[in-house]
Amino acid sequence: GQDRQMVKVALLVPLSAQGQPGVIGKSLKQAAELALFERDNPNLQLIVKDDKGTPEGARAAAEDALKSGATLILGPVFAKSVTAVTPAARKAGVPVIAFSNDRQVAGNGVYLLSFQPTPEVERIAAHATSTGKRRFAALISQDAFGKLVEPTFHNAVSRSGGTVVALENYPPGSANAMLEPLRKISAAIAAADAEGAPIDAIFVPGGQEQLEPLGRLLPQAKIDPQRVKLIGTGGMDYPNAGRDAGLVGAWYPGPDPRGWTDFSQRYAKSYSHAPPRIASLAYDAVTLAIALAGGPEGQRYTSATITRPGGFTGIDGSYRLLADGTADRSLAILEVQRFGATIVEAAPSTPRQAPAAVSGTNFSIFNFLNQ
């Protein structure tokens, strides 16, 4: 019989970078190796390259990997490094599945496995309206993240038949800068109550940095989260969020946490330390590489196979990679509890279908190939 063709896949991670990036680099490598071991695919060879955490290092690592015959690049982590590897990868016709969450670097053969704010905002808005919440307030920071989620929230709420009644912005960086906007929201809540058209929920996108001060300021602003439901984005998923009484009961979108818990335990058993949250992305990237490795040579890693409509299943649930390079994930709705979180609505078994505009002549045949 003929020799099985070795499928070469490169992993670009900041192994020798100082500080936190180096720690992340090592754990991404370990998570990738765990996936290889657990999924046991003898004809996939993982070529691990140190990108040193710099754009120059990433460019050199990518060129090296391409010379060694890599047909898919996993990583790098940092947006500037992703940008640095893109020209060489594109010239070689090799797709990049990166771990950055900066949407600016996605597209044209670069796919981001990270959690994107857009599907999160759409999921939480759809869930809130499906439970009868119709009138919303929002408190959004004036930074790049805020500028991305604000129009998304407006669109998602109006698509679901709701209305954004009050929206306030605050400058990032200073906790106290939130108090005045919160007081305005409080006044809007009182006015809406007086008119007999109460505000049902307040959208507070962001993570621990934004939410900790928010929780402290709610009583000062005279906002009762028992009466007006707080809803957020995936950033609400941080340890001990529920220590803050103001955040208990808040809803946010996120992957089913059981997948991550299970993975963390297997990882810790293998490497004697807990993985950082981003580690699941490296595991899932290798799982994706293995899922497509059986295809015919030259056709394994194409835009059509990577964006296959059936998507992929990973530690963090099922997801699809879209033609624009972003990931559309199947998300659960979670509720902050005093300790941890509970699932209030399970993740759909597949991500919602992309708009019809995406369809093209190839899809039915790839759908068939990938069953």
Short recap of the structure:
With 371 residues, this protein is of the alpha/beta class.
Overview of this protein structure:
Helices cover 39% and strands 19% of the residues. It contains 11 helices and 15 strands. The protein has a 5-stranded parallel β-sheet, sandwiched between helices. Strands 7-6-8-9 form a 4-stranded parallel β-sheet, with helices on both faces. It has a 3-stranded antiparallel β-sheet with strand order 10-14-15. β12 (317-321) and β13 (327-329) form a beta hairpin. α1 (19-39) packs parallel to α9 (279-292), α2 (55-67) runs parallel beside α3 (79-92) and α4 (117-130) packs parallel to α5. It is elongated and about 70 Å long.
Give the topology.
Layout: E1 7-13, H1 19-39, E2 44-50, H2 55-67, E3 72-74, H3 79-92, E4 96-98, E5 110-112, H4 117-130, E6 135-141, H5 144-159, E7 163-170, H6 179-194, E8 201-203, H7 208-217, E9 229-231, E10 251-254, H8 257-271, H9 279-292, H10 303-306, E11 312-314, E12 317-321, E13 327-329, E14 332-336, E15 341-345, H11 363-369
Parallel strand pairs: 1-2, 1-3, 3-4, 4-5, 6-7, 6-8, 8-9
Antiparallel strand pairs: 10-14, 11-12, 12-13, 14-15
Helix pairs in contact: 1-9, 2-3, 4-5
Notable traits:
371 residues, four-stranded parallel sheet, five-stranded parallel sheet, elongated, single chain, 19% strand, alpha/beta
